Amino acid sequence: MGPSDAAVRHSPSTWQQPCPAPASAERSALVAVLAERVLALGAGRLLVGVDGFTASGKTSFGHELASRITESGRPVFRATLDDFKNPWKDRHLYDRESGEGYYRNAYDYDAARRLLLDPFRSPEAEACALCSIDPLTQQSHAAETTPLTPDAVLIVDGVFAFRPEIDAYWDFRIWLDVDAELSVRRGAVRDRNWAGSDAESIHRDRYLVAERLYLAEVDPLPRMDAIVDNTDFARPRVVERG
Q1: Using an 8 Å Cβ cutoff, are 78 and 10 in contact?
Q2: What is the assigned CATH class of domain 3-86+110-180+224-230?
Q3: Measuring CA to CA, how many Å separate 119 from each of 94, 116, 137, 144, 154?
Q4: pLDDT per residue as tens, the chain (242 positions)
């Protein structure tokens, strides 16, 4: 397969955002370095997880990484864990409104494994689903499958990507690091169109509380293959660990 044959396969979900224009040559160079590190893992199917606080830039980074990897000729599948949440119609069965409730109950890891991760990990599988339930329309896309290739790279972004339920699937783990307060500010601005004046409190009292539970219980950072300080989109940097 040549570079012209490679493409990014996206989820059918309406919860989408476009691949951003390059913010700087420095950012493009960092993405290129991480793409080379992923490709160096081998020619078979590869699974990459991108995690970090809400509004740390996970989806954009996943798109950028996917675009760079396709330049090598490898097809890339893009998914987000937000497309594998429990349906809103069942929210009366559990707490999803509090920070702890969001952390423990929002995501359907069984669906993520069954529809996406297990097929991608299995050499015999010929297709996978990139979306379970559309977060906006609540329409099920579980029956909509995308054909797999033996050399495909799957890039999944989402909070809590390295919880024990799915942590073993990843060949390469990336953490986008931003300050908690910056996460709240960015998220409030991003979500004001649907959350209105409640946007900041949702991020501070639900999402940030959930993230802190995750860090305390799972401690994912020591397992990262790369930690990227994404405070400044134009000047991201790989955090060196002692």
Answers
A1: yes
A2: alpha beta
A3: 29, 6, 25, 14, 11
A4: 333 347 999 999 998 888 899 899 999 999 999 999 999 999 999 999 999 999 999 999 999 999 999 999 999 999 999 999 999 999 888 999 999 999 999 999 999 999 999 999 999 999 999 999 999 999 999 999 999 999 999 999 999 999 999 999 999 999 999 999 999 999 888 988 888 888 999 999 999 999 999 999 999 999 999 999 999 999 999 998 76
